[in-house]
Amino acid sequence: MKRNTVYDTSVIELPKIMNRSGNITSISNYLNIPFSVQRIYYLYDIPSGSERGGHSHKDLHQLIVAISGSFDITLDDGVTKKTVRLDRPNFGLLVVPGIWRELKEFSSGAICLVLASNKYDEKDYIRSYDEFKAFKL
Ligand code: TYD
Predict the structure, then answer these.
(1) Can you tell me which atom of ligand 1 is nearest the CA of 52?
(2) Does pTM surpass 0.90?
(3) Ligand 1 pocket: which of 120, 123, 124 to mutate (most atoms <8 Å of CB)?
(4) Distance CA 81, CA 63 (A)
(5) What angle do CA 113, 117, 120 make, to 5 degrees?
(6) Sorting pLDDT into bands at 50, 70 and 90, what band is 5?
(7) Domains (ranges, CATH) in the chain?
(8) C-beta atoms surrounding 49 within 10 Å
(9) Active site residues
């Protein structure tokens, strides 16, 4: 976790079953993502100009998907920063533990779906950037 870098994060293409009356994307544990989902949450009704995130996790793996609209995620491993724009429901960003993330530039009506490898645990968060930098040493 300490040694993970932004190069360990990746945008993955998810299956898309196309039909004249709409599409389906499904995500299965260990088939499409390298972990088992223990929790799903989503951000919605996000006011224009909002910034979310601003933390790292010690052990949590996540898949982040813009299931509606778009937003930017800046990833930071303490040395390198990388910004990814998510804007399609069949692409997701895999985020490994030990990466600081900030989400911004949400479009109107954006919905950010997160599949997470563990239940909510405040002890897994690093919310201070100084603490994050010390954790990465
Ligand atoms: P946080 O993860 O900091 O949100 P974001 O990264 O989107 O800005 O969570 C915001 C608040 O919601 C915080 O008080 C913790 C709470 N929360 C839960 O209770 N359960 C959850 O599954 C999540 C993700 C957050």
Answers:
(1) 8
(2) yes
(3) 120
(4) 18
(5) 80
(6) very high
(7) 6-136 (2.60.120.10)
(8) 8
(9) 55
